[in-house]
Every structure is written in C-alpha cells, then in structure tokens.
Amino acid sequence: xxxxxxxxxxxxxxxxxxNRPPEAGDFVYWAEEAVNPVRKQIKDHYIVEQQxxxxxxxxxxxxxxxxxxxxxxxxxxxxxxxxxxxxxxxAASCKDCNIAKRESEVRVNPSRKSFPDKSxxxxxxxxxxxxxxxxxxxxxxAVRSLTPKxxxxxxxxxxxxxxxx
Length: 165
Ligand SMILES: [Zn+2]
Known about the structure:
Blueprint: H1 8-18, H2 36-49, E1 69-73, E2 90-94, H3 95-101, H4 132-135, E3 136-139, E4 142-145, E5 161-163
Bound molecules: zinc ion.
Zinc ion binds near residues 93 and 96.
C-alpha cells in the first residue's frame, strides 16, 4: 500500500504538530478543526488505495463518502501520539472494526521509541507491512486465520469465526 503523501498545506499542519514538544494528551489534536483537511486527505487517499475495502476486515464498502469511513491509527493514538501523522500508521477502516479495535496494543514491543516499520514488529496483520490474503481468508461470513498474526477482536462484522492457525 502506498502511504499518503501530504499536500504542502497539510504537511505544514503536520510539521507544526511534530515540531512542538510532546505533552500528555497530545492525541486530542487529531480532532481539532485545524486538522480537518489533513484527516480528509488521509481518508480520501486510503479509501482509494484500499479499493474501498476495510483495512482490517476487508469487507467492501462501495463508497468514497468520508462519513462511512474512519481514519484509523494502527498504533492507537492514545498509546503513541508521536505517530499521529505517520503515514504508515494510518489506514481507512470501517466503523465496526474501529470500534472493536479500540485502544488495543498491536506492537510486539510497546517500549520501542522509533516507529515499528516491519511486519514482525506487530501482532496484527498490518495494513502497510503485510499482505492481507497471506494471513486471513474469508468464507462468506466466516473468517479463517492462516497464520498466528491475527486478532479476532478486529473482525467485528463476523459473528462466525474459526481459526486453525
Ligand atoms: Zn472492517
């Protein structure tokens, strides 16, 4: 997946955030009105890049309407606000998956300071560092894990889950 490349105007907003000293509760900046154009670019980019499929459940939502999608922080923003605008920490998820995922820890080593940039650094199938179909297969509404690299909590649309990994 190609990470989002911010427009000049949006990069200035991102730089403004990244250049200030870190503070507790920094993640709330994400919801500020000044960040609206950045959030919109992120969603627009990943909805198209993911071909309108949720990054976690792979279900097709055939619309580019931003209100249908959530811009998801793969490492939750409350756990690592320093990755708030890291393009490889962002993807488009469906509402159900985002709600199911909540603030779940997805890193193998949460104390690592630099951005984890390899598949092996994550406990989940990563939208940027993994090929979804290598790990997960859907049979109608049932999902099968092909590897240990999954978390059933994320498969919100499915009641019927099975794993033989
Ligand atoms: Zn989903």
